[in-house]
Specification:
alpha/beta, Rossmann fold, six-stranded parallel β-sheet, 38% helix, globular, binds adenosine-5'-diphosphate, binds magnesium ion
């Protein structure tokens, strides 16, 4: 759209940004309006881009990041300058850490004043602040560079290992005018933004020969594999070789959790006993014990499929690196593996089966216990019963015990449906991810939230109601961080640092915005509430009251929690678990 200016058609930065986004098929913006980007949001909406307005930039950024993960197109987050920019930065850094493609676009104030630090409205050197936390950061200073600026941002976000990109748009750029014909010619439609990366034939041979020598091989599927959307070739590779697989948290459902080759229920045993491990889009970071003993065998040999060459050998020697995109690498492996050349020893498969059966039995005891008040297991058993037949429902999950136990109890049946705390184990992604998933897919979302985790993004309930999104938020309300029964060791009247108000009525928060609130104290009540909420396809919140004494300090990662050597004494050690 352009403005008439005497005889020459003129346009401006606002219009050019919108035109550039649309030209590249970026048709949703997640953001919070304000100076200097309010008119950008309005104009985008007027021109057919969907604008989802949030109450806090961190949630907008999280929504954009998860939209990027689900679609392989960068999710767009739009913020105001300095404080709004910084609020969004946590989400941008989280996207970079997790390998999700997103672009945070922030308006900024007067460059000359920022550089001399003369105290402008919302003054901040945003591009330099963003750099350490982003995969790339750019500023566009001239309207004729908007097309190139967005093209660079898109390529940086989605090529290679995806990540968060920062794009700085000064207020003066947005209002700057430019000849409309020159402007149109300056736009760039990005061709092949995430080119295939084909692994070398030698690397493929090396990997195949290692697999062929294996007796106790194991595949680890990570969220890089889920992101790649190479679902059918990954399944073919797994089934053709008969090799057992373990999904990382967000890769659950890439192959269904009830697949006979899924070793999730025998996780610790599988890690410790495998002699040859093939990592498929999964990093050997803290979530995998850095690949070290005693979690892993000292003698195990590793194959790693990754798009990022520098990921190889990051924690442990990798005997056969396979650098390329997962789709190309898996296809190459399939072509190179001769029929019958690669297989798992029958004794290995049998041992895993035995461990799976034993652990499944233990889990079933937990699920059948039905204690009063409800605990995590009985609540999750009810949810599992409802979700079993609904593979299209997205599951967002954050918390400590709520995260760990949900991951173990709720099976996933289709790819990229489980969205959780990810690589950082961050809290606060809940409502942002839920909104991003619902907007992107149009499918219902169930967000299973610890009461503490929920608080970080809870105000977005208003956003959910405003857009009428089919999101059911279930709060596991045990009245505190980890547990609700901690005490003030001074004997004073202030509550313990980890304790919240007892019996909080979270469901009334949603009712305040016209949504459906429910308060449940039994598994049967929870089942009924969830079935009704999902059938309505309306915003709902189920306040699910859990025993305040249920839960363990730090959930399943208590080993990461330093405890005073001379102070409170060692808390009860977390139950040995087969999670992560
Ligand atoms: P998880 O937490 O599930 O183990 P990570 O995020 O640690 O997964 O690891 C994902 C890995 O996948 C990263 O090292 C990333 O470079 C890689 N990756 C992401 N996308 C692709 C892709 N398309 N092809 C190959 N590797 C990818
Ligand atoms: Mg809690």
């Amino acid at each position: 759209m352009s403005n008439q200016n005497s005889s020459v058609m003129m346009t401006d930065g606002f219009h050019l940004v919108v035109d550039a986004l649309k030209l590249n098929g970026l048709e949703t913006i997640y953001g919070v309006p304000g100076i200097p980007i309010t008119d950008l949001a309005r104009l985008a909406q007027a021109e057919g881009i969907r604008f989802i307005g949030f109450r806090h930039e961190q949630s907008a950024g999280n929504a954009a990041a998860i939209a990027g993960y689900l679609t392989k197109k960068p999710g767009i987050c739009l913020t105001v300058s300095a404080p709004g920019f910084l609020n969004g930065l946590v989400a941008l850094a989280n996207a970079t850490t997790n390998g999700f493609p997103m672009i945070q676009i922030s308006g900024s104030s007067e460059r000359a004043i920022i550089d001399l630090q003369q105290g402008d409205y919302e003054e901040l050197d945003q591009m330099n602040a963003a750099k350490p936390y982003a995969k790339a950061a750019y500023r566009v200073d001239r309207p004729e560079d908007i097309g190139i600026g967005l093209a660079r941002a898109i390529r940086a976000a989605v090529s290679g290992r995806p990540g968060g990109v920062y794009l700085d748009l000064p207020a003066t750029l947005l209002s700057a005018t430019i000849d409309a014909e020159d402007a149109a010619a300056s736009l760039v439609k990005v061709v092949d933004p995430a080119p295939r990366q084909i692994p070398s034939p030698e690397a493929v041979e090396r990997a195949v020969s290692l697999l062929a020598q294996a007796e106790r091989p194991l595949f680890i599927l990570g969220k890089g594999a889920a992101y790649a959307q190479a679902d059918s070739s990954i399944r073919e590779l797994v089934e053709k070789t008969g090799i057992p697989f373990l999904p990382m948290s967000m890769a659950k459902g890439l192959l269904p959790d009830n697949h006979p080759q899924c070793a999730a229920a025998a996780r610790s045993y599988a890690l410790a006993q495998a002699d040859t491990v093939m990592l498929v889009g999964a990093r050997l970071n803290w979530l995998l014990g850095h690949g070290k003993s005693p979690q892993w065998s000292k003698n195990a040999r590793f194959i790693q499929l990754d798009i990022q060459p520098t990921e190889i050998d990051s924690n442990r020697a990798i005997a056969a690196p396979l650098v390329g995109d997962i789709g190309s690498s898996v296809t190459a492996l399939l072509a190179a593996i001769k029929p019958g050349a690669v297989k798992a020893a029958a004794s290995w498969v049998r041992d895993l089966e035995e461990h799976k059966a034993r652990n499944t039995e233990r889990m079933n005891v937990h699920l059948a216990a039905d204690p009063k008040p409800m605990d995590f297991y009985s609540a999750l058993g009810a949810i599992r019963g409802v979700l079993e037949d609904m593979p299209d429902v997205y599951l967002v999950n954050e918390g400590a015990n709520t995260l760990d136990i949900t991951r173990n109890v709720i099976d996933m049946h289709s790819p990229r449906k489980r969205l959780d705390c990810g690589t950082w184990g961050v809290m606060g992604i809940g409502m942002g991810y839920a909104i991003g998933a619902a907007v992107t897919s149009g499918e219902p979302v169930v967000a299973i939230e610890g009461d503490s985790a929920f608080g970080f993004s809870g105000m977005e309930l208003e956003t959910i109601c405003r857009y009428g999104l089919p999101i059911v938020t279930i709060i596991f309300n045990n009245g505190g961080i980890y547990k609700g029964d901690d005490v003030n060791r001074s004997g004073g009247t202030d509550p313990s640092p980890t304790v919240f108000i007892k019996n909080a009525r979270y469901e009334k928060l949603l009712e305040a915005f016209g949504g459906l609130g429910d308060y449940v104290t039994t598994p049967a009540g929870l089942t009924k509430a969830l079935v009704g909420a999902l059938a309505s396809r309306k915003p709902a919140l189920i306040n699910c009251v859990i025993d305040p004494t249920a839960g363990t300090e730090s959930g399943h990662i208590q080993n990461l929690n330093p405890q005073s050597a001379v102070g409170f004494g060692k808390e009860k050690q977390a139950e040995a678990s087969d999670s992560h």
